[in-house]
Amino acid sequence: MINCTLKPSPEPSNTEALAGIVVAALKGYGVEVDVVRAVDLNIAPGVETDMGKGDEWPGVHEKLLAAKILVIASPTWVGRPSSVAQRVLERMDAMISETDEDGRPVAYNRVAGVVVTGNEDGAHHVISEIDGALGDIGYTIPGQAWTYWHLGPGPGPNYLDEQRGHDWAASTGRAMASSLFHTAQALAAHPVPAPPS
Hints:
Pfam families: FMN_red
Largest sheet: 6 strands, mixed
Protein name: Flavodoxin family protein
Oligomer: single chain
CATH topology: Rossmann fold
Domain NADPH-dependent FMN reductase-like: 9-126
Organism: Streptomyces griseoluteus
GO molecular function: oxidoreductase activity
């Protein structure tokens, strides 16, 4: 899971709190989960896997290649994914041209989903932007592989400060985890081959 909050550790992250529901559900299926808080890393701008000295993205890239399931978690700011989420997706762009030993894009046969928090109505837009990018990169996006929490348009309390809507977001998060896990199992049993030339 890549948490794209703007808040550095150890500041509490509303986005990580909601994503924790998905993480717990995945662990319930026996999935080993690693959480990366991208804002804590020096992730240089660019669209290459390694942008040189001091760039900490290559370590995240290694984790992506080791994982069969990816969750991108982002707050909503001005109706858009966070700037950190955009940076992560830009760096993942390099994966489009990377292939495995069978000629498949490296993201093939990996699944991905999205978690969104925010105080304005824009969660579905943020989900579609992130899902669209992940699909371009080569990830499989299962049906309903998302959850979100917000209290409608305008300013309001944060996820950690308000209990309204938590039950729905948690139930949807558990459904998301099920979708991700079972689709990953199906792809492991029946991998998508390299694209025809």
